[in-house]
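Blinded run. Sample ID left blank on purpose so nobody reads anything into the name before looking at the predicted structure. Input follows.
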Amino acid sequence: MQQLPPQPAYILHSRPFRDSSLILELLTPDYGRIACIAKGARRDKQRRQRALQPFAPLLVTLLGRHDLKTLGPLENAGQPLWLKGRAVYGGLYANELLVRLLPEGESQVAVFAAYQQLLAQLATLGGEQSGELELPLRRFELGLLQALGSCPELNFSPLANAPIGADAIYRLTPEEGFAPVMVPPGSSLRATDFPGAQLLGLAALMESGDDELAVGMAEILSAAKRLARQLLAPLLGHRPLKSRELFRQVYGAP
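Blinded prediction complete.
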């Protein structure tokens, strides 16, 4: 039986398989999202199932030649990150996005690093305020969309063949990315319209990774949320995200 080299991994999702096993969706750097069978995991509750928890860094060995691998030996690769309150749902949301959007079996080194950073940030939160989630989740969403090639450049307009101007208004278009538009004075912006200053602020936030840039930037984070929702919608289709629905049921918040 073919054995892949050991890989760092996180469990994104698990579901029962036959009488005593689990099918796991893993995130790894070299193979991206990959599915495997954890044989006997539901029976061996004292050891193996306890190790197969979300948000816990693992080192896994995968066996087999087919698309659905078998989980071989695994080790803990660090302490599990205990997320609290709303941060738990932020982690579940990220997991669901990765399961829904990542192609199977393709290297995702940047996405794996972004996911590690997200979990580390979520683990520092008290989980009592929804606003705490805005910066880490928006950065993760846009980073994931960039990795998938589904986020246009935030500081350049291909249609204008020029950098984004801070004083201009740009409309998100499926074909051209951000296109400059004229908005009559006193007219409301469309949902797809973004002030150039907000786009430049987003670009700086993504490029620097400096959380201090987001201090006092509620408008920037609001624009990031609106942009991410618009870009994610065609990729996710009409099936709602379970994690988002669960968050609303528990906290009554969008």
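Unblinding after everyone has recorded impressions. Residues 7-76 form a domain with the OB fold (Dihydrolipoamide Acetyltransferase, E2P) fold (CATH 2.40.50.140).
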